[in-house]
Amino acid sequence: MTLLRCLIVGVLAVAAARPLWTLLADRRRPIRRAAWVLLLAPYFTPVLLTGYAYANFSLSLLHHPALNTVFYSALLWWKFTPLAAVILYFTPAPISAEAIHCRRLGCGARLCMEPTNRVKGAPGTAPASFTQPVIAPRRCSALRFMGRRLVAQFEFCIFLLRAGCARGPVAAFAVVFLCAFAEFEMASLMVVKSWTVALFDAHAGGLALSEALRRMLGPLGCEAAAIATAFVVLGRRQVIPAQRLAVNRLRHWFAWGHLLTHAFTFPNGMGLRHWFAWGHLLTPRRRRWRCSWLRHWFAWGHLLTPSQTAVATAGLRHWFAWGHLLTALIFVLLIPAAMVLWGTLRGFGLLLENFVLSREILASLLSAAGASMLAGLAAWGLVAAARGREPGSSFCKLVLLAAVFAGLLGPLVLALAVLAAVQLPGLILLRDTPVPLVGTLGLVLLPMALVWQRVLELTRHRSGLHLTTLMQKSRAVRELTWQLSTSGKFWAMTLLFIWAYWDLTASSILAPIGMTPVTVRLYNLMHYGQIAALSAMTCAAFAAPIFILLAARGTRRWWAPS
Amino acid sequence: MVLAAVAALFLGGYYLLWAPQRDSLVVYCAHDSIYADQILKEFERQTGISVAVRYDTEATKSLGLVELLLQEKAHPRCDVFWNNEVLGTLQLADEGLLLPYRGSGYDRIPAAFKDPDGRWAGFAARLRLWIVNTNRLAPTEAAIQQASSGDLDRMAIAKPLYGTTRTQYTILWKLWGRDKLLAWDRDRRARHLREVDGNSMVKDLVSAGVCDLGWTDTDDFYEAHDDAKPVAMLPVRLDNGATICIPNTVAILRGARHLTGAQKLADFLLSEKCEMALAAAKSRQIPLGPVEATRLPEDVKQLQRWAAAGVPLGDLGAASAECLAWLKSEPRE
């Protein structure tokens, strides 16, 4: 159930991210800036805040669990679509839109030619618009056309895939899937069934580590597949020459297999065939509309790269993008924030009198800083060390693999394993220190840090950076260096820091005594429902990392390398 | 340079935050931090002994402090365990982790709520309750009986794997035996009984009118009551008319590094002053030892009368393990 939900969320997130991507790349700076702010705000909203705000609403849906699950899935979609959009933004298609159009033209008669042309005996080399009326006098002719069209589209898709146009979408899907799949806090607060909640329940009264690992095997396999997919896809850099994409019999079989899959998978598949076959009974206007619809339906490549479809529907996509951004902002951030702020206003006095969270917030900030630094250093340092041909590189590769595998276990299983390990005589000295918590969080963050390391490496402007080193040192050069190199790392580290700051599971198990992280304290108090003092504390906890990050960005001239 | 500065800042911060806690009295506390904090701060103020607390959390409720204490058996770091129920403490006592101590606080607690060997003592109890939405159902025994005899789609309880619902199931296991409890439980689930994550959720569901009735504890009930929600309560009664009164428990761990401080805290928690403070809190904990009745809130006086009919809990150790094994093997939604 969790797997299916997360697959759907992943696909929808990538589909929604395409129009968002165009907004993020808008030429007008205010529009671009507004789009970035609206995009990232829901993502940076802690799940704890969103889950806490909607806990009562979810309870009211107790008798309608399906509705509750749909609402939870929508929240996941709104929350993680920004990730997909950012990945698409940073991994543009390696070939230009013009080249893609040329390929489309060269893809052959089947892709460009209309049945009209063939019926009238015109040569099928010139591109023709799909919006031209289609005349299908015989049913078999229409079906043949559809089949040829599908094969051509399939070939075109293969071209796009092999050329690396799918890198962004597939990596985005993998990352969104991974995040949605491992989500626990919101599912728990919103009473949604998920494997993470079930694993927690299984721990009632104790569960042996081996049993916990056994239960984790299936989910771990799914997570490993997602990570591996992201890596393999992001690792492809080579553009395949066009001549190697010649159509062969095997691909035809694949194409027809795909057609059959469509026919059986989609309920409208069979109806579509009849609809197409009896097209000659339609009026020209209806035919035009039908062809436009078909073009969308069969345009597999539209997720991969800008196309004529994108241009034709740019207005609609534009409005969809803004609508999506605003809806996500309202549901993921504004409504929860309004609820919490309302409580804050009423509970601020109580906060000052009874609860001082400064210690917990400081503990969380320190743990998050330590963990994100560790993950960042491991991702950048170990990858660099593992890449060389020196004798130590193989060892570094092994260490990296082991660390990634440990990180993929997730915070619950990893924290339990670490907790058991620090009871051993050799490691007992570490038990009462922050080392186990920071180390565990660092390992949990490592897979995501590696993904970001790869994304940043692929988008690195090497020649631009080299030019900056040749230029005379000045404020402008420093700013240029920041834009070309440091800003990417800074935002990647920011993401890791935010993830670590809001971790709940590992923190609650491994935090040293007397250093309770703020998330643990808040989550514990959220057990009592929504009360004013708690809302005030949540607000304070929410503001602290934002303040730190703004301060870090504001003082970059003193610490960023020039 | 930047990395070195960040690392220095990081280590300095940790040292400042963590170093003062190293010589503190270590308390593992499963009681709600919102109430326990004030008690422990008062103890610190009175005695000058610094306390470092590790609270149980909802997030790790299933792992729990009891599990942690069992894991740390060979190298204990906890001095005092303040549990909010009795089953976990009984398990620790059976495992030989608790140190007997009969101080001034132990003496004032009735025999029904303490270990004869002095390994633990109970204080400040809660009752298991029926919580009823008064807009939907009359708060009477007859109405509850009728509502719970048909379809249970509008009745909620917490998952019996944890907390006080688990204690209630364990008591029923001991009273009825395995077969009767199993049949009773399956029958209720077949009638669409709603199982949610915790007692506070049961309270929220009933007070919002999503469900008509449910089981919860006194502290959760008074949350809704104080928010002027349309709720009423009746004690859950067993076949023999006994109520279910679940005390907090305090125990000192074997190998405690701060034994004197631990004994002082145990006496403090079992004192009249502490029980009165918890009775006056929003959770209305029921004092078990003798207290000045005139100073007790009216709500608590009523609860005290019901608590007097509480079923003994000291001999539930074996039933607890068996019942939990069954609950974990039973597929639940």
Description of the structure:
The complex is a heterodimer of chains A (562) and B (333). By secondary structure, chain A is an all-alpha fold. Chain A folds into three domains: 1-94 and 164-247 and 313-347, no CATH class; 98-163 and 250-305, no CATH class; 355-562, MetI-like fold (Orthogonal Bundle). Chain A has helices at 2-24, 29-44, 47-60, 65-90, 97-106, 109-112, 115-120, 139-163, 167-182, 185-189, 195-202, 209-235, 249-265, 268-277, 284-298, 308-312, 314-354, 358-387, 391-408, 410-421, 435-458, 462-470, 475-501, 505-510, 518-526, 532-554, 556-559. The mean pLDDT of chain B is 89. In chain B, helix 2 links the parallel strand 1 (25-29) and strand 2. Chain B contains 14 helices and ten strands. Chain B folds into two domains: 23-125 and 245-304, 3-Layer(aba) Sandwich (D-Maltodextrin-Binding Protein, domain 2), CATH 3.40.190.10; 126-244 and 319-329, Periplasmic binding protein-like II (D-Maltodextrin-Binding Protein, domain 2), CATH 3.40.190.10. In chain B, helix 9 (199-207) packs parallel to helix 10 (218-226). The longest helix of chain B has 17 residues, at 2-18.
Brief account:
Chain A is mostly helical and 562 residues long. Chain A is built from 27 helices and no strands. Helix content of chain B is 44%, strand content 17%.
Task: Indicate the topology.
The complex is a heterodimer of chains A (562) and B (333).
Chain A: H1 2-24, H2 29-44, H3 47-60, H4 65-90, H5 97-106, H6 109-112, H7 115-120, H8 139-163, H9 167-182, H10 185-189, H11 195-202, H12 209-235, H13 249-265, H14 268-277, H15 284-298, H16 308-312, H17 314-354, H18 358-387, H19 391-408, H20 410-421, H21 435-458, H22 462-470, H23 475-501, H24 505-510, H25 518-526, H26 532-554, H27 556-559
Chain B: H1 2-18, E1 25-29, H2 33-47, E2 51-55, H3 64-71, E3 80-83, H4 87-94, E4 98-99, H5 104-108, E5 121-133, H6 141-147, E6 155-158, H7 163-176, H8 178-190, E7 194-196, H9 199-207, E8 213-217, H10 218-226, E9 231-235, E10 245-253, H11 259-269, H12 272-280, H13 298-307, H14 317-329
Parallel strand pairs in B: 1-2, 1-3, 6-7, 6-8
Antiparallel strand pairs in B: 3-10, 4-10, 5-8, 5-9, 5-10
Helix pairs in contact in B: 7-8, 7-14, 9-10
